[in-house]
Design goal:
This protein is an all-alpha fold. It has one domain. The chain contains 15 helices and no strands. α10 packs antiparallel against α11.
């Protein structure tokens, strides 16, 4: 598809990295100053504000680390010269008119100056990640959370095309989109300590898990998506397995794609049944360790055998939705005091004891 503008010249990569490392030096210098101030502020505020549970800190730091990783992935060489043709343009296919218009606007806007906009996107995400990772007890974490909501909305709508919700999306591809899950986590993290120290935080995570798997089942079962017949599903998984990556990652994907091609209806039915089962379990048995483990196993399996971990091939912009769900599962296990997280609780107790 002709986007109406030539590809950025090869030296655009060099321009990007010259600016990137200049900004990096400034960020490192500023980070040292802010880190010292943040540590002092946290020490002074220990007796002034109610403590958040460990699950809050885990979720904040984990999502912050994911934003930081997203920023570093945005700094990959191909993002400056191939982001439009390799990432944005393929999302146009089959989109409703409104979504297509929004994506075309994103493509034209990015094409004005790919170097500057890739620099901006890179450092916006790195900045959000650093604020969430190291801003505990300071205003910087809240700044990072609010920024993640604003920037996340831009990325989810103009960069992820609403997580492919309107073109037959599937959980195997990460629908409804990892950035939407980041935003939901940010909303939860903006809640006060009293909310986190009540049963409401755990209930919110339970509701999110039920909604996610119910949506996954609906999208997988929707006839218009084409998952029940033909090679639609196997072709997608094959394309993931063909990405440049070690054979240990690609071989299971290609084997899975072969099975899908032989009996697409049967395997799609199994996927729908699994997703329905998870939704039901989160509705009726949310505190069961069986529910937790089954969800963790299915999430990891689909993160690998569908989403391909999201970061491989040189054009991955994030590790996809599977890892965000695993992070949420870990936070929920701590809030609900499930025995599956006993090892983490013991480790946290040791860390707290060492800090005294």
């Amino acid at each position: 598809m002709n986007m109406g503008s030539p590809l950025p010249p090869a030296f655009a990569e060099a321009d990007f990295y010259h600016t990137f490392f200049a900004i990096l030096l400034i960020v490192l210098a500023g980070g040292i100053v802010l880190g010292v101030r943040a540590r002092r502020a946290r020490t002074e505020s220990l007796d002034e504000s109610p403590a958040y549970p460990h699950a809050y800190e885990w979720l904040a730091r984990a999502v912050g680390a994911l934003w930081l990783l997203d920023g570093l992935l945005q700094a990959q060489p191909l993002m400056t010269t191939r982001f439009i043709g390799g990432f944005l343009a393929p999302m146009l296919q089959g989109q409703p008119a409104l979504v297509e218009a929004l994506m075309n606007f994103s493509i034209r806007f990015w094409g004005i100056n790919p170097v500057i906009w890739n620099e901006f996107a890179t450092w916006m995400q790195i900045g959000i990640g650093l604020a969430m990772l190291f801003g505990a007890g300071t205003v910087w974490r809240r700044v990072g959370l609010w920024a993640s909501l604003g920037w996340g909305l831009v990325v989810w709508t103009g960069g992820e095309a609403f997580g492919s919700l309107f073109v037959g999306g599937t959980w195997l591809a990460g629908t409804p989109g990892s950035v939407l899950l980041y935003m939901l986590a940010a909303v939860l993290l903006l809640a006060p300590a009293s909310y986190w120290n009540s049963p409401r935080a755990a209930k919110a995570l339970r509701a999110a898990m039920f909604s996610l798997w119910a949506l996954a089942a609906f999208l997988q079962a929707w006839p218009a998506s084409g998952w029940w017949h033909g090679q639609t599903l196997s072709a997608y998984v094959t394309s993931m397995g063909a990405m440049p990556q070690p054979a240990v990652f690609s071989a299971p994907l290609l084997a899975w794609a072969k099975l899908l091609s032989q009996q697409p209806g049967l395997w799609n039915g199994i996927l729908v049944a699994v997703f329905v089962a998870l939704a039901v379990l989160w509705a009726v048995k949310p505190r069961s360790t069986w529910t937790w483990w089954l969800t963790a196993i299915v999430t990891f399996a689909t993160w690998w055998l569908g989403q391909d971990f999201g970061v491989l091939g040189g054009m991955g912009t994030d590790p996809n939705s599977g890892v965000v769900v695993l992070v949420g599962l870990t936070a929920y296990a701590q809030l609900a005091d499930l025995p599956v997280m006993g090892w983490l609780s013991r480790r946290h107790a040791v860390m707290e004891h060492s800090a005294l």
